[in-house]
Design a protein that fits this description.
The protein is α/β, with parallel strands linked by helices. It has helices at 44-56, 73-89, 103-112, 128-131, 137-149, 166-178, 204-217, 230-234, 262-271; strands at residues 5-15, 59-66, 93-97, 116-118, 153-160, 183-188, 223-226, 248-251, 275-276. The chain has a single domain (5-276), classed as TIM Barrel (Alpha-Beta Barrel), CATH 3.20.20.70. It contains nine helices and nine strands. The structure holds iron/sulfur cluster (SF4).
Length: 281
């Protein structure tokens, strides 16, 4: 019997803590004054160097993230210029994550060498105004549609434990299913004293059930990825996410929180009998 394949994805927060939006779960929103590292754009050479390291660490996906709600023209130029150089040097599934974008911008990213775009719908349309008032859920949804029209692979998902109820989760997963996403990013809320949402309202068992539900519903989605909040939500049970249907995780650090040490993580996953894929098929 083949060992279960696991895909690793690295995220690079190339611009941190500068966002003017008000998402209640996000430490990168300036308004919350969270105690995080804040910096402007990293250089292209540094991003490429970090891509080489990610590939050496068996990542098959490399996601460039900015703390912005909207992709503006300056960022778009930077993304395109970086992708053109990076793809000549590193063979990796290159993902952009820079918020709401229009079809023309997304087509330019595709042309420059991006393979995928990550854009989470976060929660149900109904619950969205409880977690963000600065921009609408429908704008996020429209971007997901345009990502597919532009020929990019769509990575989407959301964040659980924000106070949403079961119906919100069902509604959200139904949208992801209808979008025929390529990869699903499942995040679990990691509370921070500076943020307005004070606690994560789901138990570990509920979190496992959410992964299983998503896996069962999104039968044609290649990667079910547990992303942010894995260590916080599951602690010593974190690798059990694979038993419930996840086949992908983020390695290294998250956007503003520390992750596991990479070589230790890889060793642990292999010792558990899983096969770490080195190609993003
Ligand atoms: S738009 Fe993105 S970066 Fe900005 S506050 Fe919301 S989640 Fe954070």
């Amino acid at each position: 019997m083949n060992k279960k394949d696991i895909y690793l994805c690295a995220i690079n927060n190339i611009q941190s803590g500068t966002c003017s939006e008000d998402c209640k779960f996000c430490t990168q929103a300036v308004i919350h004054k969270a105690d995080i590292k804040r910096y402007k754009l990293k250089s292209t050479s540094r991003i490429i160097k970090e891509a080489i390291a990610a590939k050496q660490n068996k990542a098959v996906g490399y996601c460039l993230v900015t703390s912005t709600a909207f992709l503006d023209e300056k960022l778009l130029r930077f993304f395109c210029q970086t992708a053109k150089q990076l793809k000549k040097i590193v063979d990796i599934n290159l993902i952009a994550c820079s918020g709401i974008a229009n079809l023309s911008q997304l087509k330019q990213l595709k042309k420059a060498g991006f393979d995928s775009y990550n854009h989470n719908i976060e929660t149900s349309e109904n619950y969205y105004t409880n977690i963000c008032t600065a921009h609408s859920w429908s704008k996020r949804y429209d971007t997901c549609i345009d990502i597919k029209k532009a020929g990019l692979k769509l990575c989407s998902g959301g964040i659980f434990g924000l106070g949403e109820n079961c119906q919100d989760r069902v509604d959200m997963v139904k949208v992801l299913k209808d979008l025929h996403i390529n990869s699903c990013a499942i995040n679990f809320y990691h509370p921070n004293d500076a943020l307005p949402i004070k606690r994560n309202n789901i138990s570990v068992d509920e979190a496992f059930d959410i992964i299983k539900y998503i896996k069962d519903e999104l039968k044609h989605t290649k990667k079910i990825m547990v992303a942010g909040g894995r260590e916080y939500m599951f602690a010593h049970k974190q690798y059990e996410v694979f038993k419930y249907g996840a086949n992908s995780i983020v390695i290294g650090d998250y956007l503003t929180t520390k992750g596991e040490q990479i070589t230790k993580e890889i060793q642990t996953i292999q010792n558990l009998g899983y096969n770490i894929k080195e190609v993003c098929d």
